[in-house]
Design brief:
The complex is a heterodimer of chains A (238) and B (221).
Chain A (H helix, E strand, L loop, with lengths): L8 E5 L4 H12 L5 E4 L7 H6 L8 E4 L2 E4 L1 H11 L12 H26 L4 H26 L12 H7 L2 H11 L10 H12 L1 H4 L5 H15 L10
Parallel strand pairs in A: 1-2
Antiparallel strand pairs in A: 1-3, 3-4
Helix pairs in contact in A: 1-3, 4-5, 4-6, 7-10
Chain B lengths: L4 E5 L4 H12 L5 E4 L7 H6 L8 E4 L2 E4 L1 H11 L10 H27 L2 H22 L12 H5 L1 H4 L1 H9 L10 H10 L3 H5 L4 H18 L1
Parallel strand pairs in B: 1-2
Antiparallel strand pairs in B: 1-3, 3-4
Helix pairs in contact in B: 1-3, 4-5, 4-8, 5-9, 8-11
Chain lengths: 238, 221
């Protein structure tokens, strides 16, 4: 157990958020004990607003009461604050680190927005185009997997690393989107590496206890849509 | 002796400038390769096939793209004059402000200068909120990085130099000395650095560049 006496770690979040999931997986990888502070839906707590005044968003990690914001910054912080615990989340070599950071950035700056765009499409034509964008992005990651994994089971090699966390957090919502759109995003034949990786990721010790089941996410999305009379919640709404 | 470090850049591009500044602060010799962004070289497209943009750093023939990532690589590869603190929490805070600059602040500043009417008013409001946050962050500090220029200062270099030019071209005022005294003082301190001035594009030339661009946009309407 990496949490020593007097170390106080809390995570402000919500169970459906893939960004919150990133922080939870990182903490689990390092064996860090933490208190999960679930935000009430539709309402931001005083604590959250004080801890993240700039964006007012989850996740926020509180370590000795001091906040760290932005999911991948939290992941990197967990890696640096508990260097001896678990396994390194980012590789040691500066060039390899740059590659991992590049693909995590790609996921946040390009892939995730293309997924959000898809969830907002109104016409069949728009849906097909938007789905195509998501698949094109995943194809790049299929290629990147080959380069980063060095023949092993994860982007991080032997074990889950930075890019695994950045991408894997979306797998639950991806399954929901596959059901609602009828599009297969990670096709075993077209993206065998990602397909194999996705199964391994979801089965990992650090992930399976905290990753919500797609059915639960789907029910959550339906409830939100019904109460807001808006398109289903996507990962950008937290 | 072959130069190990090359920077694909475009003159006047503030993201390219970040990379050159970081290398100069650390005393790293490099060769710059000028890119015409309207006619990108095959080399650039090979080295950055995903985004096809400058800057790209080439070290021992290996390419790294995206300016903030390049800054992290430079910090990890050359230890002189660190641009990130040692403490993990302070590092996280620095990374937060770098992302804030790229995701919110610089976008709002840039768009304030290139839009009109209500759209412009909205961007200007956002820009002012962003500048206010940076103003607060600077309280009691000479630089965002403390006593010396750090990664956030490097990321914010377009505020110190490009913003004034854009304000002039657009005929607007954003960085008001009365509202943002810390930021204005920071600009002065930042521009005193030798490394900063060595590769900063001349103001007059930047002005001409952006004025031409503005005219080109206006003539299309």
């Amino acid at each position: 157990m990496a949490a020593a006496e007097g170390i106080e770690v809390k995570l402000i979040g919500a169970w459906p958020s893939p960004f919150v999931l990133r922080a939870r997986i990182a903490l689990n990888l390092k064996g860090v004990e933490y208190e999960f502070l679930q935000e009430k839906f539709g309402e931001k707590s005083e604590l959250l607003l004080r801890a993240n005044p700039v964006y007012k968003k989850i996740p926020v990690l509180l370590h000795h009461g001091k906040p760290i914001c932005e999911s991948m910054i939290i992941v990197e912080y967990v890696d640096e604050a508990w260097p001896a615990a678990g396994r390194a989340i980012l590789p040691a070599d500066p060039y390899e680190r740059a590659l991992h950071r590049f693909w995590a950035s790609y996921i946040d700056d390009k892939l995730n927005p293309s997924g959000a765009a898809l969830s907002k499409t109104q016409t069949e034509e728009a849906k097909v185009e938007a789905a195509g964008q998501v698949i094109a992005g995943l194809k790049l990651l299929e290629e990147a997997f080959g380069r980063l994994s060095k023949g092993k089971g994860f982007f991080g090699g032997d074990d889950i690393g930075y890019v695994d966390i950045a991408l894997g957090c979306f797998l639950g919502w991806l399954k929901v989107m596959e059901k609602t759109s009828g599009v297969k995003f990670i096709d075993e034949e077209k993206m065998p590496l990602l397909a194999g990786w996705a199964e391994r990721f979801c089965a990992h010790e650090a992930v399976k206890a905290v990753m919500p089941e797609p059915e639960r996410l789907e029910a959550f999305a339906r409830k939100r849509a019904a109460s807001a009379k808006a398109p289903p919640a996507n990962q950008n709404t937290f | 002796m072959a130069v190990e470090v090359k920077v694909f850049r475009s003159w006047g591009n503030p993201f390219s400038y970040r990379v050159e500044l970081a290398l100069r602060l650390k005393g790293v010799a490099y060769e710059h390769i000028e890119e015409d962004l309207s006619n990108k070289s095959t080399l650039l497209l090979d080295y950055n096939p995903v985004h096809k943009k400058v800057p790209v750093l080439l070290h021992h023939g290996k390419p790294i793209a995206e300016s903030l990532l390049i800054l992290e690589y430079i910090e990890e590869t050359w230890q002189e004059n660190p641009i990130l603190p040692k403490d993990p929490r302070e590092r996280a805070v620095a990374r937060f402000w770098c992302r804030f600059l790229d995701d919110k602040c610089l976008v709002a500043l840039w768009m304030s200068c290139w839009t009109e009417g209500e759209t412009q008013q909205n961007f200007m409001e956002q820009a002012k909120e962003c500048l206010h946050l940076l103003e607060e962050e600077l309280k009691g500090k000479k630089f965002f990085g403390g006593d010396s220029i750090g990664m956030v200062d490097i990321a914010a270099s377009s505020i110190a130099h490009w913003l004034g030019v854009l304000e002039e071209v657009a005929g607007i005022s954003l960085l008001d000395e009365e509202k943002y005294p810390n930021l204005c003082k920071w600009t002065e301190e930042f521009l005193k650095s030798d490394a900063v001035m060595e590769c900063l594009p001349k103001r007059a030339n930047l002005l001409a560049l952006f004025q031409t661009r503005k005219q080109a946009i206006s003539s299309v309407k």
